[in-house]
Amino acid sequence: MFDAEKYSKRFKEKAYTTQGVYSQPGNLPLIITAPHGGLSKPETIPDRTRDGSLLLADMHTKEIALGIGEFVSDHYRSAPHVISNDISRRKADVNRPLQDGAETDAGERVWREYHQSVQFSVEKVLKSNRSGLLVDIHGHTHFDGAIELGYLLSLEELQSKSVILDQIILEKSSIRQFAKRHGKTTPHKLLYYFGDLIAASSENHIAVSPSSHMPIPLDKNYFVGGFTTQYYHNLWNGLDVIQVEIPRHLRLHEKNRRLVIKVVSLAIINMLDRYYIKHGIARNLFSGQAKLKEGNEMKVEVKATSIGTSGCRVASSTRQHCVGSSRSLKKLLKP
Ligand SMILES: [Zn+2]
C-alpha cells in the first residue's frame, strides 16, 4: 500500500511525449488515462478506415485528465500517473484491441507507445502497492447528461436483484478484485460508492450512474467499459478499473470542466484515502469517513484531528462530504 509518510516532499518527474503519447509519471497508486482526447492528425499516419474510424474525439478529455492529475497532486504532494493519446482516433484508436485500433505500422507505433506507458505505470503501481486504481476518462453525447461509470456490467446486469448483482460484480466486474478485498462490504454498495462520491461532491447537481440514486443508467447506449477497462482489470489481480464517461455539457464549457475536474478529483481522493493509501500524513490531517446511510444518502463524517494550514473544516452538512481538501468545501464546490 502507498505510504503517504514516505513522501513529504513534492513528487515531480517531468512529463514527456513520444509518438504523440503524453505521459506524466507518478508515484500514487492511481493511473488516469485519456485515450480519445487527441486531435492531432499527422500526415505520416494514414487514416483508419475500419470500425469506428469516423468517430469524433472525446473533446477536452485530455484537459480533464490533466486537471484531475493536478488537483490530486496538489492534495497529496504526490502524483498520479497520467497518460493521454494526443493522436486523433482517426489515426489510432488506443481504446480498441491492436488489430482494430491500428491499421498501419505508424498507427501501431502510437498504439504500442500508449499501452507501454499504461502498462509501465500499472506495473510500477502494483510493485509498490498491492492494489491500484485506473480511471479511464471519456466523453459521451447521450441524452441523459449523466456521468456514466463503466464497470463492464451491462444495463440488464445492473437491473438484477441485489443478491444476483453482488455475484455478478464478484465474477466479472472491473472492480471484482476490489469487491473481494473488501468482502465485509456488500459488493453493490462498493459499486455505487464512486458514483455516490461524485454526486455528493457536486451537491447532487450532477447525475451519476450507477450510483445509489441512479443504479441503472437511463440511456440505452450506456457505455459499459471499453478495451482499457477490459484489458487492464484482467491482467493483474490488484488493479481496479473504472471508465468515466463525461457528458458533453460538462466538457465543452471551461467553468463546467473546472467543476467536473473538482468533483471527480474529490471522489478519487476519497477512494484513495479510504481504500488505497496507508494513512500516515493523510490520515492525521484528514480523517474523513464516508458512509452510506439508509435511504441511500451519503454522509461523511469529518474528524479533522490535525488540520494545520490545510484540511477540511466542514463537518455539519449531511448531504455533503469532505475529503480533506486544502480549501474550504464551500469554496471548492462554488468556484
Ligand atoms: Zn471515448
From TrEMBL:
<protein>
    <recommendedName>
        <fullName>N-formylglutamate amidohydrolase</fullName>
    </recommendedName>
</protein>
